């Protein structure tokens, strides 16, 4: 950094520097100490303290070498870190400097020898008005003084031991957020914490092994609750101001050797109160709810806006009626075959499943502008009957803008002649986007059957698939190019033996190449596209598009075929362009 650019930074008052450091990691803060003496002093007295042996060792040596050392050598290095922590705490102990945040991580050690150091650090932090404590302390004891910290606002403990204390010994009147993950504590101590810290607004309880049935009650200010359960654990929730609730089990699903689900006990949640007036968002994953849960949904949660139900294997036929719901997600509820919805304010509907069941949906009332996203993984043979069910599914979503994502990890067979004997079904549904994935055993027969069936079902504005330059072959991309761009040979099109029934309705095809990127939304991985690049069909042959893809350094690039269809109306067995 140039001298002129640091002069202004060097003159900043210490409280401003401390504020800046509060947004930086420990490693980043250390680098700023090189700016000037005032920054060095501020780093040494920052109200945010982070102690992590892994980070400390990585600054001095290659972390991979650490595990090659003998037990004695590692203990020597831990002693070095021990002295580092004690030195860092000295100015706070002697000068009474304010401490806002302490992050103590001992993931790499897993040794109770750290208890004395942890106790010393916590005592100094509590004495100096700590507000946020974040401990990752496997096999260590959480210092009891934590629960006598009147200034404490946010407490997070992972893999530590929490010993029992009485209600009168717990004095944390300011505690607003509590996260307990994989910790060792009994139900009585948990109840004592809840009863003593009645102003908690955010509570997370993850995988407490010894819990059986436990309660989250007497928290009249609780707004957000996340509970992750082991098998056969049940939680009772009664919180009048609760706005967001997430309840999941320890495993989404698992299968036996023969592919059948193993017999296992379920976990779940109980709602003793008749109304949860403020609840806006509800997420269930892998817990024991059945079809009856949804009967009084509108009455129990009158203002619910977001409903996500994942991996709940007891659901078969559900009916959801709500005047407030805006977003619904149904994901991998394997036995679900039917769902009815009366949701006039719906804005977004998502359905995905890894099995080959295509459920029946009925939307009795819905808003005039909403989107539907359907994602299907086909694991077994797909035939004409599967496409018929898919057509019925899309027909039930005709009021919405539909995106369809299909992964064919199986054989595909579709014969238009078999359809002619079926009672007339609705015309192909308009779909905004059709995303196709094929397994590595791609074949032309599989590709043609898939396209024939899907274009009998729907008319997508975009057909897209993923390009991986790291693969030797991208047969699916080449197949889509050859098949969809077939209309370029206009003179031969009408007489070609390769022509398909849907190609007569395909007016124009353009190609767009977009970069695919990954982003996290909550606990889910989402994919987005960026960098739009459109090319007219007459400007691109296969070699040109191949060079374009490779020049982009493309891994995870999406190839979009933009389709323009003739609107065709069937009448007396003949087609008319409209």
Distance between the first and last residues' Cα:
67 Å
**Based on CA inertia axes, which overall geometry fits?**
globular
Number of helices: 16
- Strand-pairing-aware structural class: alpha/beta
Pfam families: F-box
Domain F-box: 6-39
Protein name: F-box/LRR-repeat protein At3g59190-like isoform X1
Structure characterization notes:
By secondary structure, the chain is an alpha/beta fold. Among the domains are: 47-200, Leucine-rich repeat, LRR (right-handed beta-alpha superhelix), CATH 3.80.10; 378-578, no CATH class. 26% of the residues lie in helices and 30% in strands. The protein contains 16 helices and 28 strands. The protein has a 20-stranded mixed sheet that branches. A hairpin with a 2-residue loop joins strand 27 and strand 28. Helix 2 packs across helix 4, helix 7 packs parallel to helix 8 and helix 11 runs parallel beside helix 13. Mean pLDDT is 80; it is low at 1-5, 253-260, 488-497 and 569-578. This is F-box/LRR-repeat protein At3g59190-like isoform X1. It comes from Coffea arabica. Residues 6-39 form the F-box domain.
């Amino acid at each position: 950094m140039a001298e002129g650019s640091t002069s202004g930074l060097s003159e900043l008052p210490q409280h401003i520097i401390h504020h800046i450091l509060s947004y930086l990691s420990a490693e980043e803060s250390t680098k700023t100490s090189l700016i000037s003496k005032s920054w060095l002093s501020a780093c040494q007295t920052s109200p945010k303290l982070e102690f992590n042996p892994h980070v400390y060792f990585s600054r001095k040596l290659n972390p991979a070498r650490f595990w090659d050392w003998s037990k004695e050598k590692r203990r020597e290095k831990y002693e070095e870190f021990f002295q580092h922590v004690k030195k860092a705490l000295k100015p706070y102990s002697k000068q009474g400097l304010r401490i806002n945040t302490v992050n103590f991580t001992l993931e790499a050690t897993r040794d109770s020898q750290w208890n004395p150091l942890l106790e010393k650090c916590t005592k100094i932090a509590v004495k100096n008005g700590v507000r946020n404590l974040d401990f990752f302390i496997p096999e260590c004891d959480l210092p009891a003084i934590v629960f006598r910290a009147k200034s404490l606002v946010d407490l997070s403990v992972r893999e530590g031991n929490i010993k029992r204390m009485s209600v009168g010994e717990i004095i944390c009147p300011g505690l607003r957020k509590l996260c307990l993950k994989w910790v060792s504590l009994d139900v009585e101590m948990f109840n004592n914490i809840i009863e003593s810290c009645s102003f908690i607004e955010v509570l997370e309880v993850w995988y407490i092994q010894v819990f059986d049935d436990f309660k989250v009650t007497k928290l009249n200010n609780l707004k957000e609750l996340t509970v992750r359960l082991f098998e056969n654990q049940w939680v009772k929730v009664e919180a009048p101001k609760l706005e967001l609730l997430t309840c999941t089990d320890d495993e989404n699903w698992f299968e036996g050797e023969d592919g059948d689900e193993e017999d296992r006990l379920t976990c779940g949640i109980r709602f003793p109160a008749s109304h949860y007036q403020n609840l806006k968002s509800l997420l269930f994953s892998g817990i024991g709810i059945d079809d009856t849960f949804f009967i009084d949904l509108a009455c129990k949660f009158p203002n619910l806006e977001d409903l996500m139900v994942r991996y709940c294997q007891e659901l078969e036929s559900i009916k959801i009626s709500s005047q407030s719901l805006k977003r619904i997600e149904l994901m991998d509820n394997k036995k679900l075959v039917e769902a009815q919805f009366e949701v006039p304010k719906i804005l977004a509907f998502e359905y995905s499943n890894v099995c080959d069941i295509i459920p029946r949906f009925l939307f009795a009332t819905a808003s005039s502008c909403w989107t539907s996203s359907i994602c299907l993984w086909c694991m077994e043979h797909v035939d004409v009957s599967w496409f018929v069910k898919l057509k019925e599914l899309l027909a039930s979503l005709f009021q919405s803008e539909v995106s369809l994502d299909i992964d064919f990890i199986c054989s595909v067979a579709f014969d238009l002649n078999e359809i002619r004997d079926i009672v007339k079904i609705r015309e192909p549904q308009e779909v905004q986007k059709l995303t196709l994935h094929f397994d590595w055993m791609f074949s032309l027969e599989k590709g043609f059957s898939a396209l024939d069936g899907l274009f009998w079902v729907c008319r997508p504005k975009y057909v897209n698939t993923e390009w991986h330059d790291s693969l030797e072959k991208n047969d699916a991309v080449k197949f889509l190019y050859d098949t969809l761009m077939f209309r370029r040979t206009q003179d031969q099109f009408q007489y070609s033996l390769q022509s398909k029934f849907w190609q007569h309705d395909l007016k124009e095809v353009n190609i767009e190449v977009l970069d695919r990127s990954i982003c996290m939304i909550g606990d889910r991985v989402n994919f987005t596209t960026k960098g739009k690049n459109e090319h007219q069909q007459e400007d691109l042959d296969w070699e040109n598009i191949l060079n374009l893809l490779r020049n982009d350094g493309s891994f995870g690039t999406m190839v979009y075929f933009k389709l323009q269809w003739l609107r065709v109306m069937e009448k007396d067995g003949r087609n008319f362009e409209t």
